[in-house]
Task: structure prediction
Amino acid sequence: MKNKIKIYRSIKGVSQQELADKMDVSRQTLNAIENGKYHPTLLLGMRLGEFFQCTIEELFALEDSDRLEM
Result:
């Protein structure tokens, strides 16, 4: 799953640590999410969208390998 957290964070002018503190997660967790090594829970995704005032779809996008085959 790709995400735009780093871009939105830069626009908002907050560090990884500041955002992690606001989301009540570790900086390492936030770093792993930004780098696509960890997928956040739905609740965390919603909280991030609320913080950045955007939808989850604007913040996260499925990669081709994440899509379900039918």
About this structure: The chain has a mean pLDDT of 93. The radius of gyration is 12 Å.
